[in-house]
Amino acid sequence: MYVIWFKRDLRVEDNAALTAVPKGAPVIPLYVYEPDYWALPDTSGQQWAFIAECLNGLGRDLARLGAPLVTRVGDVVEVMEDLRRTHGVTHLVSHEETGNLWTFARDRRVAAWARGQGVNWREVPSSGVVRRLSGRDDWAKQRDARIFAPVIDPPEHLQGPDVPSEPLPAGPADPCAGRQTGGRDQALSLLDGFLTERGRTYRSAMSSPVEGATACSRLSPHFAAGTLSIREAAMATAARQREVTDKTWKASLKSFQSRLAWRDHFIQKLEDEPRIETRCLHSAYEGLRGDDAERRGAWERGETGLPFVDACMRSLNATGWLNFRMRSMVMAVASYHLWLDWRATGPHLARMFTDYEPGIHWSQVQMQSGTTGMNTVRIYNPVKQGHDQDPTGVFTRRWVPELAPVPDVYLQEPWLWEGAQSLPYPPPIIDVKAAAQEARARIWGVRTGNAFRSEAAAVIHKHASRKDRQGRFVNDRARGGRRKPKDDKQMSFDL
Length: 495
Hints:
The protein has helices at 16-19, 45-65, 76-87, 101-117, 139-147, 184-196, 202-205, 212-215, 220-225, 230-243, 247-272, 293-301, 307-319, 324-337, 342-352, 358-369, 382-389, 394-399, 432-446, 450-463, and strands at residues 2-6, 27-33, 70-73, 91-95, 120-124.
């Protein structure tokens, strides 16, 4: 008896775990709701609600193949042991998962159980992430070989025994009324709409919180849940690239392919070094910042007195999504201007992102906090970002309606307006210019000395991308290893 353990691969198409089961072998497709996981500080009700919608579609697809989805609630090891005893399970198949530390520890417990009970557990590769890498020199070749291999067709039939399910709980409350809807059908619709209509201006519009909401693919939560594979998206994009002749389309589709690769690149970091979730990538930054509950609370609620920052945070809290540049900015403001430790602010963003992907999230929050030792220090000016990315003020005014009386010229700096004291809006909790200057001095003060550079070199060898002048991933040795690593992308997991 085989068990196919679905985790974050909620589809039957392009699913290597399904095809790993010998034809005719009895199989139990299984999803386990794990209460301890959904109580973690980086998970949320909106994420579970999205997953639950994805499971509805997966259940229908599996039923059509002849093996209905079995759902259980509890600890995975206990669930697996119950299935082994009652149904004679001898084989377990799942995708490799690069999750948070909790899922890493859980998988180690599952592996120990499987060894102890003589159950053969096979984990098939997921996306372009490669296990047990010693360095990044040849990663890109391995990644591309996987991603541009043929899409795997689902089996024609699965033989599923009669196994009872448990009803899935409602889970944590979902406070995000504007979040995206889950499910394979939604993913395919988004992909088609992006590749044929919405994506034409992707390259130029993705930096805008207004235009990006439409021009971006909006596939990131589906990638995180696995209703659509990266290979499916990459291959469909490649087919569209062969069709288009318009220069704007060509540039946008090239950028999208690049960001699909960057997505795998960042997840690979957590695969190679799980401690990224809890420790600074470069140890020199440990203890540099702390937590200030009052400042952090104002930032989380969108009440910092910095209009564009507050608009972004309120939009995120209401919709579960924010475009890539604004994700970078709100994290950078928290880390530099408010001088908050990324371990205090990162969990809030993780909960708010419907598309939370641990492998991207934790390396990205560190990158925007300047704690990697290898990335460009980016201290965003939130006032300038407001002018640049919301020049008409439509985004800021939508999410910060308290600023309605403020003239356009003062919208991003209302404290300079003579009527500011009458506004139902707080003054800024920091001086933007002074806070940036102090942060810059403190962060660069760490980046000196041979010991810092030696550790930074080791970080670069293990985690930095290998790219040529055209922005293509390459083998580092092919260029002599002398070019500066181009690993300073903004938070790109929104796609």
